[in-house]
Amino acid sequence: MFPNLSLDQVIAELLLERAQKNLIKYQVAARQFEAKYGRSFDAFRQMILNTEPSFQGPERKHMNAAELLHGPQQESQRRAYFTRVEVLDQSASLVKARLHIAPGLFVQVYRNDSFDTTNLVLIHNTDL
To answer: Taking the complete model, does pTM exceed 0.90, yes or no?
Structure first.
């Protein structure tokens, strides 16, 4: 497949080919993001970075499930880029909600007091 090349040169060629394919894939994803949401990902990222964090100091502890249930509603009113809040599951010690930014783009929030677990995930679903 690679005549007259050393093993190191073959590995370098394969890595370069893989990097080029990944670059094309990421460029396509960036164009799709911009077409779908009307702004570049860099502009969206900068908009997020320019907002003030909502915690009150560096020693802020995690909210419990009851507090967290009200948090997304407050954040959606305070931050213009959250279009709606969807509560997926809730109990006395658990809450799972989505903070929608645009169709197919949301932050999923999960809090379980029983296991002292909090997860925040940014989801970008290109299938929508």
So the answer is: no
